Amino acid sequence: MSAHKHQNRSILTGNYPVLFPDNAWIPLRKLAETTPNDGLLRIYSALSGEALLVTSPPAIRDMLTVNAFDFAHQDLVKIAIKRFTGSNLGFLSNDDFKLHRKNMMPAFAVPHVRELTSIFWNKAQEMVHCMSTELRADPSAPINFREYVSRATLDNIGLAGMGHDFQTLKQPDNDLRNHYRKLILDPTRVFSWVGLLSRYFDMRLLMRVPLKKLIEISQSANYLRSVTRKVIQERSAKLVGSNDGRTKDIITVALASGVFEERHLVDHVMTFLTAGHESTATAFEWTMYELGRRPEMQRRLREELRASMSSDNLAAADFGSRVQNLSYLNAFCSEVLRCYPFSPIIVKVAQQDTTIMNHPIPKGTVVLYSAEVSNHDKKLWGPDADQFNPERWMGEGTAKSGGSSSNYAMLTFGAGPRNCIGANFARATLECLVAAVVTTFEINLANPQTAGKLKFGQTKKSAEGVYGKLTWVRPVEA
């Protein structure tokens, strides 16, 4: 196997400046930009751990499309997901994965998601009402966007996912949300050490150690699984003998296929609640951050939204479906998703001998792709790839591509047959939430100097969160 190497390398830290970088995608992106390569770049991490980074569209295509089922997540990731959520989806065979995907896909297709947008819009209106309640109590209060969007997104997943309202916007400290918060771990250096040690030791033994934190996580996962199981049983009972052809939540559509066992549907909902919730909520935070920094763009977006509605139909349920046809809103959200990919680096392992760009890739080879690298590649996006510029999505024929030169330039949701199935769901949710806030408030940042500082870990999140100083631009009933 041949791949270009970066010359600056330490035995201890590899190609990175320190053993465990706060945000590994930052030095990784610099490596990709400064090291000549033909699409495959050999990189080294702590203690000379070796991996390949795919950097060019042909290499990414081979990894994510042509040979997509030759690669899978690391065993440590699959074991951790099972330990922390009870989900076995990571251990599905390729054939079972394809069967699940085929029968879950109709629920996430654009036409069905468009039918769900009335749910997203109504929840977005409920969210701004809750924000308004806090502002009435203290007009100078900084609004914690993460707090509100976390609750709104959980409720959306409950309603659109299972037809069940978790009601965390109205009851922020209810049992479900308290258990959910225990399930989402803040990253620490311990995770980095566990990842490093997993190269040499079987970490399944560590996962079984009865540590207090691990026990709490398991208890919370069991609680969420029991709630989910009960709701699915109720939806299944309602489905029997029903010929209702109206809009159905995602689990009801999946149940109608007759393919899924109850335990599999519980696993899928646990995936929605973890990966789906965090990524959408974080994208909303970054959207508020960019709108707060760019008042002229905020005004333009508000004008577009106002032009699409009149004051007497602002809360109309059908507005949610119209949100997706607003060009500047779509462009702004697309640019946020490009610049702030939730998972900047994805690590896979070759499950069998395979190839990338005709280079042999032996079984067990660690291969990475990086949305941070590809989403900012000047060869694909042009000289302004580093700049936040929604206009790139506004040109003729660029609404889907952003003017990039490849279908593999935008990797926020991955690509190929194993891409993120919830991409349409996430975008529609984000657009409704953003539209509701922008039509209700003028947004200024309460923490402009620090909101953009990144949190330690493997996801691209603000360290302290994004806080807003909001003023009403339209009245909201108490």
From TrEMBL:
It comes from the Eukaryota. Heme binds at residue 420. Coiled coil: none annotated. InterPro entries: Cyt_P450, Cyt_P450_CS, Cyt_P450_E_grp-I, Cyt_P450_sf, Cytochrome_P450_monoxygenase. One of its GO terms (molecular function) is iron ion binding. Its cofactor is heme. Transmembrane segments: none annotated. Pfam families: p450. Belongs to the cytochrome P450 family. This is Cytochrome P450. It comes from Aspergillus kawachii (White koji mold).
